[in-house]
Amino acid sequence: MAANTVLSVRDLRIYYFTSRGAVRAVDGVSFDVGEGDVLGVAGESGSGKSTLGFGIMGLVPPPGRIVGGSIVLDGIDLTKLSEDELRKIRWSKVSMVFQGALNVLNPVVRVGDQMAEVLVIHKGLSKDEAMKIVEEHLKLVGLPPDVARRYPHELSGGMKQRVVIAMALLLRPRLVIADEPTTALDVVIQAQIMNLLKRIREEEKVSMIFITHDLSLIAEIANKVAVMYAGKIVEMGSSDDVYSQPLHPYTQGLLNSIPSIRRRKGLSWIPGSPPDLRNPPQGCRFHPRCPYAMDICRREEPPQIDVGNSHVVSCWLYAKR
Ligand SMILES: Nc1ncnc2c1ncn2[C@@H]1O[C@H](COP(=O)(O)OP(=O)(O)OP(=O)(O)O)[C@@H](O)[C@H]1O
Ligand code: SF4
Ligand SMILES: [Mg+2]
Prior knowledge:
Shape: globular
Largest sheet: 8 strands, mixed
Number of strands: 12
Number of domains: 2
CATH topology of the largest domain: Rossmann fold
Bound molecules: adenosine-5'-triphosphate, iron/sulfur cluster, magnesium ion
Radius of gyration: 20 Å
CATH class of the largest domain: Alpha Beta
């Protein structure tokens, strides 16, 4: 682990124990996020991106559970903490802009009061002190101070998303997880929110995990990228390396599909669909859809291969055998 590592995840496994078997949503995931890093996490629907975010927040919903691995944030393994201890860290050290977050605001409480409550509870500030900080944060995300007195239904989708981002930053966390923060928004507002996140990254020195199905958004904001497929990271490296030299056939497929997904059309061009995570394919989980699949791919899981400059890929094509 490097000296400036904020988050270090090792061999993380998160399963949902359903009546029809265990869904292995996150299945042996490892990565680091350094100070000021923005790690983009990409992958198709159902690949485990949100579950990974919930795991780091200590908020995996039942019937889900962390079944193995570690999540070390600033030297503390979050998987070992009690719920009380986690509550202190959540929002103050790590926060999350949830997928579909536009609906998380309480409709009957004014925006400013909802935000202030976070500061009153976590920091013990008076209401007046909290309101000052709320107004500063509204300004930070480009909203006028009078938004504090409005109810959520009086805001547009883009304004609500700015409020949710402001809330995630209120306690100055070390790490913000943004899960599809622009997906529900139209293209113009999406561009504005991307610009806001880029500005926050530069001005606030907060580390970020930016989750999306859209690799072209990651190229805009992230310096590192992890590509997930069926609960595993199949390729990871600096954005420059992964975009200029994608190695995994799945990453290559995702990148080839970018012109057609620019308007959120999905990634359906890759033939086939992601596997059932209760019973994933043996060997390489991508083999039923991979144009290069070999015999060994159907039998044995590919090792993770470091091709240099921390660019790693899990694929038999790159293994020395
Ligand atoms: N509460 C749950 N109970 C059972 N299975 C679940 C639950 N939540 C998620 N899953 C399963 O876990 C897997 C990963 O889901 P997750 O929501 O993490 O994917 P995702 O990559 O965020 O997808 P999307 O891009 O659609 O948001 C999927 O197979 C999903 O069906
Ligand atoms: S390990 Fe085999 S099946 Fe999997 S991506 Fe590589 S070549 Fe394709
Ligand atoms: Mg998701």
